[in-house]
Amino acid sequence: MHPKNPFSNNYDFDLLIKHYKPLKDFVFTNEYNTQTIKFADKHAVKALNTALLKTYYNIDWHIPDSNLCPPIPGRLDYLLYVSDLVQKENLKLLDIGTGANLIYPILGTCHFNWQCTASEVDRDSLKNTALLIQNNEALQPIEVRKQQYKNSILEHIIQPDDYFDVVVCNPPFFKHRFEAQQKNQRKVKNLGLKEQDNLNFGGRSNELWYKGGEEAFVKKMATESALFKTQVQWFTSLVSQKEHLKNIKRAINKTHPTEVKIIDMTQGNKQSRFIAWTFN
């Protein structure tokens, strides 16, 4: 994890339960005499992340069970590396596809005191982001914009008088519903689960798949980024599959950026990365 990530150490479950009592139902002591939760249980994962936001940022957070539950430590890691990239205090951030969880604007606002704007195409997710902002005074400065056109990413969101220091994005992973279901079944088998309902793999269609998968999504984002080269300092996107980087980087280079970077991140045994490019 990033050296400045406050979640790099083991969780203090007693402290978390003190701030969010429902987490207590999911905490147990394992064979190593360590308190933990069952990370294959989506309800336990949701309770843990709700507790983290309440304990560290005093945010009352709720998302429907049908939506993706983001891992707070990993999402903060992305923003910490973005902070290293941009190196600006009063940073203006645009989150593409914020989902129902609004997590990047929440962390950007509460952890860094950034000015955050988010876009989202799904109507139900937008309703939930509105409730989160309404129920948390600290989140009131966040602006959420509806993407009216499902085939657009940056277009119709970035307005002529906008300027953003950075765009962040967690693109849909899969190419179609069938690929997402295959991944779901594989995860059930690997975890030795019998009940698929306990799986922490959730999400609505627009969160999980996009025609052509994440590679096609980021390529489309790269093409559109050339239209806003004077309005955004850095465009960035997570890339879940390392093998997609070559084609994504080739698509970005076709837009003639002045610089392209790939920033590697590590969270425990998990390797991740994001790609960043600029025209300035």
Features:
single chain; 280 residues; alpha/beta; Rossmann fold; 9 strands; 36% helix; globular
Question: Can you put this structure into words, describing what you see?
Answer:
The protein starts with 12 loop residues before the first helix and ends with a strand. With 280 residues, it is of the alpha/beta class. It has helices spanning 13-19, 42-57, 72-86, 103-112, 123-135, 177-191, 205-208, 213-225, 245-253, and strands spanning 28-29, 35-36, 92-96, 115-120, 143-146, 164-169, 232-238, 259-267, 270-278. Strands 5-4-3-6-7-9-8 form a seven-stranded mixed sheet, sandwiched between helices. Strands 1-2 form a two-stranded antiparallel ribbon. Helix 1 (13-19) packs across helix 2 (42-57), helix 3 (72-86) crosses helix 4 and helix 8 runs parallel beside helix 9 (245-253). Residues 174-182 and 193-209 have low confidence and may be disordered. Strand 3, helix 4 and strand 4 form a beta-alpha-beta unit. The chain is globular. The chain has a single domain (64-278), classed as Rossmann fold, CATH 3.40.50. It is built from nine helices and nine strands.
